[in-house]
Structure formats: structure tokens, C-alpha cells
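Section 5.1 Outputs to date
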Amino acid sequence: MTDGSLVPARLLVFRVGTLACAAEVNQVREILPRLPTTRIPGAPPVVAGLVNVRGTLVTVVEGWRALGLPPPPPTTAPDETLGSGSTIILEVAEGKEAEQGNDHSARRLIGFTVDEVLDMLTAAEHALEDRRGLPGVDPTLVRAVGRRNGDLFIVLNVAALLGPILTS
């Protein structure tokens, strides 16, 4: 799937709000519990802030904001300042070479907040459909649509979703 075709791929499936999404496993560096962030002055609202992951500063993006979803309900427990969920650390290619699918382009780590990590699976060619299969989601952010236990999920175009944030 890295070249744009619908071929078998290993996917990490997760939930952001009510939307089930997936990213290719080769783009996932690690999955961490939701981390406290340090706000970056002047950063766009989609950026939650910075976290220190073993000595590396990583920009964290609010998943629901990046996907244009409604905000999550406020937490009711006073000790849940961060809310639940996870931060997925993704390796994202940068620059024009990334747009052309060049695997030799510079890569940057970026965090993406999700509500729940659901599964890791291998999606066979017949299980993935062209992105036109899911109305209501910006097609430029979707590489394909798949099914897991009968439910639809979208395979995100991580470069299209996070690329504009990396350049801002």
C-alpha cells in the first residue's frame, strides 16, 4: 500500500471518537499511554504540544482535531486531567519526496492522540477497497477502506494528514 496500490498491508487499527482508523505498521514507532504535553506558543489548535520521549522532543497532534471530528466529552473524574487513550508515535516522511512516496526522504516523529487502540491486523487485498467506499470523510486523508469484524475502518494517508502540520 505504500505505493498507492491496494495490496496486503499490516495495519494498526485504532479509534478516534467514533471513527475507526488505521495506519500502516511500518509508520508506527511505538504506542504510549496518553502523555502530558507542553503547549507551544503560537502553534495551531490541532497541536496539543510537545512531549519528551526518551530524550527526543516530539510534537503531538490531537487526533480528533486533525480529522475534523467533534471534541470528546469532558472527563468527569477530577484525577483524569489527560483523559484516557494513547499517543501513537508515527514516523512521517517530510518534503516533496514524501509526496512522491520516496522511502528515502527525511523522516520525523510525530505523536497522534487516539481514544483506543483496537487491533493489529494484516489486511488482505480483497479486504481493502478504494477510498471512495466511505462517504463523509475527506478523501485526501484516506488511502483505503477496510473491514474488521464487520465494521468499517479507514486507512489514513498519514503524510496527507500530518504533512501540513509538520511544515507549519
